[in-house]
Amino acid sequence: MGFVHGKNTYVSIDADNLSTFTTNVQFNRSGDSHDVTTFGKGSKVYQSGLKDGTSTLQGIYDNTASTGPGAVLRPLVAGAAVPFVYRPEGTGSGKPQSTVDVIVTAYEETAPVADMVTWSATLQHSDDIDDTAQSV
Q: What is the pLDDT of residues 35-76, one digit of tens each?
């Protein structure tokens, strides 16, 4: 197993490929832990609970009318859950893929005076993550 460069990463939301507009992806998994410590214990004891997760996408803004990040993400903010596909090694048979329904909880555009307009989106995972390898 070797190191993997991020340049081939693929992301799509609601079947819209945003890879060509995206420069950074954070795919976070977390889980609840519940304190079940009882009398007589010298250390805390925990029981696992529900899984959770969020993802953050960042990139360079593109005003392409139907496929740019703004056109795709603005209508999804606080809307219904839609599929999110994350392929950290790019597309190809046997390569890893994580698919999960997400709710777009935030979409932000930043326009600095001396640089390119950028965008970011925050995604709340909803339900289980499917980590099935690609069969492309």
A: 999 999 999 999 999 999 999 999 999 988 788 999 999 999
* Contact (Cβ atoms closer than 8 angstroms) between residue 76 and residue 84: no
Domains of the chain: 6-30+47-130 (2.40.30.200)
Give this prediction's pTM.
0.92
Residue 66 backbone zone (phi > 0: left; psi -120 to 50: alpha; other: beta): alpha
Per DSSP, the residues of 50-101 read EEEEEEEEEEE----TTTSHHHHHGGGBTS--EEEEEETT-S-TT---EEEE
* 10 vs 33: CA distance, rounded Å: 32
Q: Which two tokens stand for residue 1?
A: 């197993």
Kindly give the pairing relationship between strand 16-17 and strand 46-60. Answer: unpaired
